[in-house]
Amino acid sequence: TQLLEQSPQFLSIQEGENLTVYCNSSSVFSSLQWYRQEPGEGPVLLVTVVTGGEVKKLKRLTFQFGDARKDSSLHITAAQPGDTGLYLCAGARGGSNYKLTFGKGTLLTVNP
Amino acid sequence: ETGVTQSPTHLIKTRGQQVTLRCSSQSGHNTVSWYQQALGQGPQFIFQYYREEENGRGNFPPRFSGLQFPNYSSELNVNALELDDSALYLCASSSDRAHYGYTFGSGTRLTVV
Question: Taking CB atoms and an 8 Å limit, are B45 and A50 in contact across chains?
């Protein structure tokens, strides 16, 4: 079983549309991170959230950490073709914060 | 400030052979972690090195081993390669063990034939 479930797995939208990607778990995380990965490259850190209920904004991207620190969402407003990529959520757990557990990712395609 | 550098970028090996992958961590980072990313999957944790000591290990067999050097660069060694070892191997460095996020390299694409 996957510790972190991401949905949807694939998403294809038109430029200008809004979207939300979800990351869910039955486990509590001490921190949750979102990364974007492009083909042939490593993941690039977008944001880290550590407090339950925390909301962070990065330009058109809004990240939220659930109150119970078990889930997170990423909302993109007015998507652009440059937002295309694989979005990965990853959690660090308090007892073993030496490693990140990743979800399978959401592959987003934004069409012009 | 330089990022994380991995070499080589691509590699083709035959089943049963051994391979060494290399990583130079970002300046100021003392923790290096290695991840394996199979096609269509998220990265899976292999192990982490902190100040030259293995700090934690994922569910990978002993034929996966590593080293960290005094300058915080690192190597991943895989013995007796299997077809299923074909994947993108990612090195990540941080100044804190995992909590605030990693800087990843671009990876080494290993193909075992």
Answer: no
CB within 8 Å: A101 and B104: no
Given a cut of 80, whether residue A4 has pLDDT beyond it is yes
pLDDT tens string B54-101: 988 999 999 999 999 998 899 999 999 999 999 999 999 988 666 778
Give the tokens for residue A22: 């979800």
pLDDT of residue A95: 66
Residue A50 touches chain B, beta carbons under 8 Å:
yes
Angstrom distance (rounded) from CA B112 to CA B110: 7
Compute the distance between CA of residue A95 and CA of residue A17 in angstroms, rounded to an integer: 40
Instruction: Say whether residue A38 is in contact with chain B using an 8 A CB cutoff.
Output: no
- Bridge partners (DSSP) listed for residue B91: B34
